[in-house]
């Protein structure tokens, strides 16, 4: 059976921090961010926009009523969860009006979670061919003011509808995963921001890429020559570029290498404007590739490298199907220009503002601009979400 991504949508915050502004404020050469990290802007969420509102907005942008009546599983992959028990997907199930007889769960392994979610979705559809599964990768990447990670923050959600006979791409039945128990990036329950061994994390990312790619090629008797594009997890685009250079085979013909390079540039266009969205980053790279590549055609094979700190990596592949372009947007970069530009002072206030919960567990939440959904209030420790302007 052919199973894969039938629809893919994206949502991000309505506010943006420009990297040159941040560089000036932090007394850093702007080239360090624009050339050293390959970042132009970061999406910044206010307190009423979180993984639930972003995830629901991303999904709402792609789902039809028929989809909502058919979806029987919703998986939210995240590492910035709003609750230790209740899955974010239960809120999203209700906000979207998905039929009741569905399973809703949350998955976690740092930035890798959505890749496991996709595989679970694929296996579910294999067993229940009429099912559709909604996979949402949703995160707010927050490191803290004046930390080395600060320029690699961001926020956003990628929603993917997994079904049989998909109209964008087939998930091929080939993958290699690798686990290493390492402390490169982690967030204990008592901390709102992660602990990071930054340079070590980049070395682990690149080494897990190298070793997983070698194993993938060996197990499936394949090589870079079989692929039209390679998508990478994108904590910041410069690291993905290093990954691309690592997998590049110098013996390939020049025009083929040029095509791979062109496609790589397409994978990083959105991340340059949005920053790190953790679990969704690889899939934002895929979306960016599909919506911006000038040379991809049906039948092309795409390799994908997923990496989650802690650490788990996986390489798998997908095949583009006929008509995939019809399922995509063409003006997303333009839409990103509509975000509201923040001064560094306002960014520090907005991004790090927390709900002021009183002794009864209530909090009024300021009404900052969001996508289609917003956190309205916290009432007796319960988060109350709703549609924007829907009192
Ligand atoms: N002009 C041009 N480039 C400059 C420059 C200038 N004036 N000044 C510095 N640079 C370059 C540096 O040469 C370097 O590039 P290269 O690596 O190609 O040499 C780059 O800018 C970064 O500079 P530093 O090496 O000085 O590193 P830093 O102190 O800025 O930290 C970081 C970089 C470690 C990635 C930090 O941003 C960080 O900790 N980020 C969070 C952790 C992270 O994203 N890790 C990635 C792997 S883990 C993962 O993938 C999971 C996840 O999503 C978090």
Describe the structure.
With 391 residues, the protein is of the alpha+beta class. It folds into 2 domains: 3-168 and 331-387, 3-Layer(aba) Sandwich (Peroxisomal Thiolase, Chain A, domain 1), CATH 3.40.47; 170-322, 3-Layer(aba) Sandwich (Peroxisomal Thiolase, Chain A, domain 1), CATH 3.40.47. The protein is built from 13 helices and 17 strands. The protein has helices at residues 19-25, 30-36, 51-60, 65-70, 88-96, 113-127, 198-220, 237-247, 254-267, 269-274, 281-292, 332-336, 344-351; strands at residues 3-12, 15-18, 41-44, 71-77, 103-107, 132-141, 154-164, 169-179, 185-186, 195-196, 229-232, 301-308, 312-320, 340-341, 363-364, 373-379, 382-387. The strands form 4 sheets. Strands 5-4-6-7-1-8-13-12-11 form a 9-stranded mixed beta sheet, with helices on both faces. Strands 3-2-14 form a 3-stranded mixed beta sheet. A 3-stranded antiparallel beta sheet has the order 15-16-17, with helices on one face. Bound molecules: acetoacetyl-coenzyme A (CAA). Acetoacetyl-coenzyme A is lined by residues 29, 31-32, 35-37, 111, 148-149, 151-152, 184-185, 196, 198-199, 201-202, 205, 233, 235-236, 238-239, 276, 278, 307, 309.
């Amino acid at each position: 059976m052919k199973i894969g991504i039938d629809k893919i949508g994206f949502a991000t915050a309505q506010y943006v921090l420009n990297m040159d502004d941040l560089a000036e404020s932090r007394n850093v050469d702007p080239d360090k961010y624009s050339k050293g990290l390959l970042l132009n802007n970061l999406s910044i969420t206010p307190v009423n926009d979180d993984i639930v509102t972003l995830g629901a907005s991303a999904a709402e942008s792609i789902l039809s009523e028929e989809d909502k009546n058919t979806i029987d599983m919703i998986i939210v992959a995240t590492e910035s969860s709003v609750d230790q028990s209740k899955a974010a997907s239960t809120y999203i199930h209700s906000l979207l009006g998905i039929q009741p007889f569905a399973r809703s769960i949350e998955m976690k392994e740092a930035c890798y979670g959505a890749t496991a979610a996709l595989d679970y979705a694929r296996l579910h559809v294999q067993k229940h061919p009429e099912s559709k599964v909604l996979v949402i990768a949703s995160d707010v990447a927050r490191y803290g003011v004046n930390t080395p990670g600060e320029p690699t923050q961001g926020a956003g959600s990628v929603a993917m509808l997994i079904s049989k006979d998909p109209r964008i791409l087939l998930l091929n039945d080939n993958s290699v995963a690798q686990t290493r128990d390492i402390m490169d990036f982690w967030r204990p329950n008592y901390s709102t921001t992660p602990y990071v061994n930054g340079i070590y994390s980049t070395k682990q990312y690149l080494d897990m890429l190298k070793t997983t790619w070698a194993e993938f090629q060996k197990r499936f008797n394949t090589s870079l020559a079989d692929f039209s594009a390679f998508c990478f997890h994108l904590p910041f685009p410069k690291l993905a570029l290093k990954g691309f250079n690592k997998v590049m085979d110098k013996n390939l013909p020049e025009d083929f290498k040029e095509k791979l390079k062109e496609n790589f540039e397409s994978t990083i266009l959105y991340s340059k404007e949005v920053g790190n969205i953790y679990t969704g980053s690889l899939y934002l790279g895929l979306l960016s590739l599909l919506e911006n590549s000038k040379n991809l055609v049906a039948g092309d094979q795409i390799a994908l490298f997923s990496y989650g700190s802690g650490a788990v990596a996986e390489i798998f592949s997908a095949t583009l199907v006929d008509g995939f372009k019809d399922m995509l947007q063409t003006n997303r970069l333009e839409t990103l220009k509509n975000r509201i530009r923040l001064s560094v002072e306002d960014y520090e206030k907005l991004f790090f503002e927390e709900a002021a919960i009183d002794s009864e567990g209530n909090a009024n939440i300021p009404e900052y601009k969001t996508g289609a959904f917003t956190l309205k209030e916290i009432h007796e420790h319960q988060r109350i979400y709703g549609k924007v302007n829907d009192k």
